[in-house]
């Protein structure tokens, strides 16, 4: 973390502190249905307020394309935030201009203000210097606590960090540290579990990981494409038949980098894609023409367990099987719980994130026991792809 300025060195007393957070939370009928992202930023907000800063929150919500609209307003999120904080949170109906300036002017030390959706201004996503300047007028100091939006080079995530004295918030700091421990200077051997439906959505990620990890454990629908690339018949299973050469290239790169690819050796097959469809276990060499693979089998799970037992660091992205359909969640649950147990025993550093991953680990009852679970979707994936995250780069000292 030496490359980042943290809150430890920030002068905050009496300062107007613009804090970029990720409040892109799931909502239904105007109510927040999962407050994880809100809870993660509370330590940063409380610390800044506790040190006498005036906390001015910048965030986006959804992907509005045509200016302000009620469906993408952050107003209901301000109420949820106030509730989790246990303190009032003022709200301004624009993130720049007169209404924002007036709300900021009213703010006392240790108080909180949320500004309306930054994406209501087109210049936000364009990282327009005019928006950066307008935002900068509102603050003395900038703190970024939104790792999960750091793959976007927007005015509030990138431009502003270059304009004001910039610091990493505590959640940003924790994310960067966890990710660095997992892939930049990991204790070896290091393994990655990569699951999910499609190879096509994770090509760059697989390519990068084959160069960084000792074991690449492939699960989910994408494993079928690799099995097919090895000449196996996968019946009606989800499989990207146009990507067999690509899959073979990934296997070659892995071999050249001494990365061992771990694929299922047995599978749970069925003829219908639905929960509780009649199923049985077969070797991956004997999948019937009318059958589809919906999960890895018990022998595969035991093999993965053996790999994890010999591993010191684990990065996890994506589910193992069709985890949303019981009983095809068995391999995901079993492997997640093995990783959780090894972590609790102090034998494994486990870091998970991206898309469906948190839902799958929550479903398995394992998320709480991992060393670190990122709230980031796209940002976590881009980091796994080895990409530079503009929001992180901009706060490097
Ligand atoms: C997310 O939910 O992944 C982040 O808030 C980023 O949102 P975006 O994908 O709309 O940029
Ligand atoms: Mg996203």
Quick structural gist:
The chain is of the alpha/beta class. It contains 15 helices and 17 strands.
Structural class comes to alpha/beta
Using the CA coordinates, give the radius of gyration.
Answer: 23 Å
Heteromolecules bound: 3-phosphoglyceric acid, magnesium ion
The number of distinct β-strands equals 17
Write up this protein.
- The chain starts with 15 loop residues before the first strand and ends with a helix.
- Helix content is 37%, strand content 17%.
- Helix 8 packs parallel to helix 10 and helix 11 runs parallel beside helix 12.
- It has 15 helices and 17 strands.
- Strand 16, helix 13 and strand 17 form a beta-alpha-beta unit.
- The protein has 397 residues and is of the alpha/beta class.
- The longest helix is centred in the first third of the chain and has 15 residues.
- The strands form four sheets. Strands 5-6-4-1-7-8 form a six-stranded parallel beta sheet, sandwiched between helices.
- The site of 3-phosphoglyceric acid (3PG) has 8 residues, from loops.
- 3-phosphoglyceric acid binds next to loops.
């Amino acid at each position: 973390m030496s490359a980042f300025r943290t809150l430890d060195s920030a002068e905050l007393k009496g300062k107007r502190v613009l804090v970029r957070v990720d409040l892109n939370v799931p909502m239904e009928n105007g109510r927040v249905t999962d407050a994880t992202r809100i809870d993660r930023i509370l330590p940063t907000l409380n610390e800044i307020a506790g040190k006498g800063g005036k906390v001015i929150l910048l965030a986006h919500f959804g992907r509005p394309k045509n200016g302000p609209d009620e469906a993408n307003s952050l107003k209901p999120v301000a109420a949820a935030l106030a509730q989790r904080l246990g303190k009032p949170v003022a709200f301004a109906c624009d993130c720049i201009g007169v209404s924002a300036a007036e709300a900021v002017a009213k703010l006392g030390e240790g108080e909180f203000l949320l500004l309306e959706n930054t994406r209501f201004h087109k210049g936000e996503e364009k990282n327009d210097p005019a928006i950066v300047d307008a935002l900068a007028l509102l603050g003395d100091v900038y703190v970024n606590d939104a790792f999960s939006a750091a793959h976007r080079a927007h005015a509030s995530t990138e431009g502003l960090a270059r304009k004001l004295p910039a610091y990493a918030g505590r959640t940003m700091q924790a994310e960067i540290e966890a990710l660095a421990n997992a892939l930049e200077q990991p204790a070896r051997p290091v393994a990655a579990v990569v699951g999910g439906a499609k190879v096509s959505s994770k090509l760059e990620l697989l390519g990068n990981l084959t160069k960084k990890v000792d074991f690449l454990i492939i699960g989910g629908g994408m494993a079928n494409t690799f099995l097919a690339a090895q000449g196996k018949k996968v019946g009606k299973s989800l499989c990207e038949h146009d990507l067999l050469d690509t899959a073979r290239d990934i296997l070659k790169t892995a071999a050249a980098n001494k990365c061992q690819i771990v694929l299922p050796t047995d599978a749970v097959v069925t003829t219908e894609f639905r929960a509780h469809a009649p199923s049985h276990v077969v070797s991956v060499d004997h999948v019937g023409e009318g059958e589809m693979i919906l999960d890895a089998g018990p022998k595969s799970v035991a093999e993965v367990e053996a790999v994890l037992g010999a591993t010191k660091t684990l990065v996890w992205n994506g589910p193992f099987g069709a985890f949303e359909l019981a009983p095809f969640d068995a391999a995901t649950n079993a492997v997640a719980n093995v990783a959780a147990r090894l972590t609790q025993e102090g034998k494994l550093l486990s870091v998970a994130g991206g898309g469906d991953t948190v839902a799958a680990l929550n479903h398995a009852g394992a998320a709480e026991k991992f060393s670190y679970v990122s709230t980031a979707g796209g940002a976590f994936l881009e980091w796994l792809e080895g990409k530079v995250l503009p929001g992180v780069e901009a706060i490097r000292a």
